[in-house]
Queue: 3 jobs
Job 1
Amino acid sequence: MSFERKIVFDAVRRLRGDKPFTDGEVRELNAAIDRALTPEQPRPAARRIGPKGLALIKRFEGLRLNAYKCPADVATIGYGSTGQHVRMGMTITEAEAEKLLLDDLDRFERGVVNLAGTTTAGQFSACVSLSFNVGLGAFATSTLLKKHLAGDYQGAADQFLRWNRAGNKALAGLTARREAERALYLGK
């Protein structure tokens, strides 16, 4: 499915009197579009992220029980949970953080099911981890997904390493995460 986000952004911008979006508004609008593109549907139990993928996300997202602003200035809590449910000053328990993560992952699991077609367990978990971090919209238009769908699994695996930048700068943490996702995708 091809989808042009610019059309939605342009329409909302016009409704706002051409007022520019803040970074936070862009993230919220992208998240709303991602939710709209992944409708509720039944999914077989096998299409859940595996234990290795879940551990990878937890390791790289880290656990924070008090709401904080991430480097992109978005209110975040738990294992990287963002959205309208997160308010600065908020505190949660570890059990609540676990529930938020599983609730958040449900949307990304459905998205990967809809977008990636047939996958191995490792490929699925790696793609869920990547999309959890970069968003379903970015994953949907990625060369990684195109190569995966074409059956070029080595080429798709190598694309993980291209997603290691923030603000045009390669980050060690993102590089390590992408190497772990790549290995998981390849079944290592």
Note: DSSP finds nine helices and five strands in the chain.
Job 2
Amino acid sequence: MFEVHPVDERAAREIVAWTYGSPYDMYNLNPADLDAAASFADPANGYQSVRNEEGELVAFLCFGPEARVAGGEYLDGPLDVGCGIRPDLTGQGLGPEIIRLAIEVGSGLYNAHSFRATIAAFNQRAQKAAGKAGFVSVASFRRPSDDLPFVILERPTEAGR
């Protein structure tokens, strides 16, 4: 059971301090970067914190433009979703549950019926979790800043029901 709330300043500082091991270290942020923390806490950016029954921050969700990656072609339609799981909880099978939660929250907050996620191509773990939540690969591209490949996945309206 999870509680979802907009990311506040405390949660934002915690998220930017998360440290992932290689090859997931591309997701690491600089904890001293006040702009990154402010971005997570800005309600206009749509970040949501996910806490467990003990009140511990276990993940975050994001929706809309914040869930997109530069270089991808994003046509109107599906709601873009993204999530991050606390580093010590990754690889434990929590991904599909967090992705399903993102769909539930996105449906409620944005009245969305279809969803899109963009995942680094090397991140097979995240792609597998998305697949378990009903997402299928529809496109791929390379991010212009570093030529890193990404895949775009979509979850049709009735997927996973």
Note: The longest strand covers residues 57-63.
Job 3
Amino acid sequence: MSAAFVACAVILLLTAGVLFIRIPVGLLPAVLGFAGYAFLDGFDNARTMLGNEVWATFSSTGLTVIPLFVLMGQATFHSGLCSRLYAAVAAWTGHRRGGIASATLLACGGFSAICGSNTATAATMSVVALPEMKKYGYEPIFAASTVAVGTTLGAIIPPSVVAIVLSVQTGLSTRKLFVGGILPGLALLALFVLTVILCARFKPGWAPAGGRRSNAERLGTLPGLLEAGLLFSLVVGGMAAGLFTPTEAGAAGSALAVILGFARRGLGLKGCIAAVRDTMHVSAMIFLLLAGANIFGKFIVISRVPFTLSESAVFSALPAPAVLLLVLAVFLVGGMFMDALALLLITLPVFSPLIAGLGYDPLWFCLVLMVVTTMGAVTPPVGASAFVTASLGRVPLEVLFRRILLFMPAFLICLALMVLFPDLILWLPGKVG
């Protein structure tokens, strides 16, 4: 039995297990990767590999950046900063047709920039924004679809947990991945807002205009904007200027988030305990995913599947752009069935060598993948953000998925721009040392 056949069988088992059996996605790659490695290289070598990979993952000082950024996001969540951010943006833009929906998208982008979690943003913004849009007469399905797609920005706009994990897996600079996500994130946000404006124009009943706020009310919301701007400037600006390493930026951002929470009296002892507890849960999940992906990656390497794919691509008649599109299609379809982070961790060992062999820039490829796979958060059958929003908004999930299709052109246009103008996407990361 060839190594390639064993690898294909294990990959099929992994896919079936994730889709149909619902085995925890962090545990399944570890079990199947260990079994496949033992079959190809012997049980003793597999046992040694297992111990080395688990120890390397959980003892890595470089991974301390993950719980620090998660803590920053949880502190802002439990302190009510997101609510203040939304109120500020809505006060300045809500008087226009579709303005409340645009404010929701802007608030999602702002909160994502200091949180980095799709599901946390979905839960927060569903609670904060959906009642506000309902109050102004927004159609419930359109309101829920706006919140759902807005939450996907958390995987792209820095500081993104997905970018941190990609950095760990590929060896790329976390700082460059953070800075590189700024332009695609802003472009996607702008395209979402344009979609809302067009929908409001052709379907006025979906997004009526809200009331105009007085200048005094607008000025009163400015502290919410300043808090978010201060956090973003400290974390991303500090890293871009070379003042902080990613780990130091996470520590500084967490400290500032806690200080702001106490200063605004939104974060008490109970909130701190909840933030630490949720940080431990999320971080443990990510670490388990990383360990499982590393074990699975070792099996994929000894099976030589990545090298076989690379050689096949090099010697095939297909041009490099065609191979790239096929790979992106795999990630796009895979994102519909699996969590974006899990999909990236499992498939990167297979496709990274292939893309590198075709001459594409690894940093650019990771930035493209962040956009491709985040579409899975709002596409059936497993769209985590859509599930959260539908549940909290009390709207039918299948109807919500259909309405979200209106925002798919925004994703596709953003991807097309990234593919057509790679030098533009890499311009900002190129300015970072």
Note: The chain has a mean pLDDT of 79.
